[in-house]
Amino acid sequence: MKLLTTIVAAAVVLGQTASAGKLRIYVVDVEGGGATLVIAPSGRSMLIDSGSPGAAAERDSKRIADAMQAAGLAKIDYLFTTHYDGDHVGGAPAANAVAHFDRFFDHGEMDPKWEQNANGRARYDAYLEIALHKRTVTNAGDRIPFDDVRVDVVASHGSVIAKPLNGGGAKNPFCSPADAKPPNTTENSQCTGVLVSYRGFTFLDVGDLTWDKETDLACPVNKLGRVSLLLATHHGFFNDQSGAPALLWAIQPQVVIANNGPRKGMAAAAYERIQKVQGLEGLWQSHLSLATDTAHNTDESMIANTEASTDCKGHWIRVDVESNRQFTVTNGRNNFSRTYRLR
Q1: What strands, in cross-sheet order, belong to the sheet with 23-27?
Q2: Per residue in 105-131, pLDDT tens?
Q3: Which of 122, 161, 234, 292 is most buried, most CB within 10 Å of its CB?
Q4: CATH fold for domain 20-341
Q5: Chain-centre distance of CA 162, in angstroms?
C-alpha cells in the first residue's frame, strides 16, 4: 500500500468533544443520493459524496449541516467523491458552502463520453471550481491519512485493488459464472470506494460500483475479507446494477445500511439477497421502500424515514464504534438503537 503523499499537514477544526474517543458515522438522508459523514476519534472528518444538484442541493446541504451540528463539527476536513453522477457530486458546491472542505478526493478526470449524460460536464465543472488546487486523485491501493483510522481505497477509475487486505485472499465459493454480467460502461463503473478500519471494525462504502467491478473484488478470491458494516452498493442495489452475490455473501457484513430513497433501491430481490448473508445481524434503511411490501422492508424501528419524499424529514442513521469491540447503530427518527459485538 502506498500512502498518498499529496496531503499536507494543516490546522483543522476538530470535533473532539463529539467524537469522545469513538469512530462515528452518519448516513445522511439525501433521498436516494449519497452523503455519509465519517468522523475519526481525533475529530478529523470526511464526507463521502455530497447529494444532488439543483433544487435538491439546498435540501441536502441543510441535512449535511444538521449532521455536522449533531456531531459538534464547525467544518468538514475532506470531501471524498465516489463518482460524478448527479446524486453523488451534484450537491458539492452547496455542501462546500456549509462544510468548507480543506481537501478533495476523487477518481480523476471525467471520461468525455459521459459528459453529456444528464448535464455531466456542468456538474463536473462546478465540482472542479471548488476542488481545483485542493484535489487528490486516488488509485486503487492508495491509503488516505485519517489519523488513527485506516482508509484504504479499494476501487477507483475502473480498477480494483491487486492485493487482498483485511484478512482477505481466500478462494471465494460464491463465484459463479451464471451470476456474471458484462462490463458496465457507465460512470458508475469508475467509482472510487473505501474500506474504513478502526480497532477491528470495518466499513465498506464503494458508492455505485457496478456488479462487474464488485465481482473483480470478490473473484476468484475475496480481496476484502469480512466487513462489519456495509453501505449497500448503489442505494440498495438500484436497478440490479450492483449487489453481486459473490461479493455480498463473501464479505458477510454483520450490518447493512441502505441509503435508499422512497422508490429508489431496496427492491424485493435486493432485500432477499441481503437476507441470505451468513451471520447478518441487522438491516437498516434510510427510507421505507414504497415500491415493495412490508415483507420486503426491514423492521419499522430500523427505518429512518417512513414518509414519501414530499413529507420527508430527512432523518439520519448514526453508527458509533467504541474501543471495546462493539458498535451501536441509532435511528435519528425515533432514537431506537441496537448494539453489535464485533466478530
Answers
A1: 135-137, 103-106, 78-80, 45-48, 36-39, 23-27, 317-321, 326-331, 337-341
A2: 999 998 877 666 668 888 999 999 999
A3: 234
A4: Metallo-beta-lactamase; Chain A (3.60.15)
A5: 21
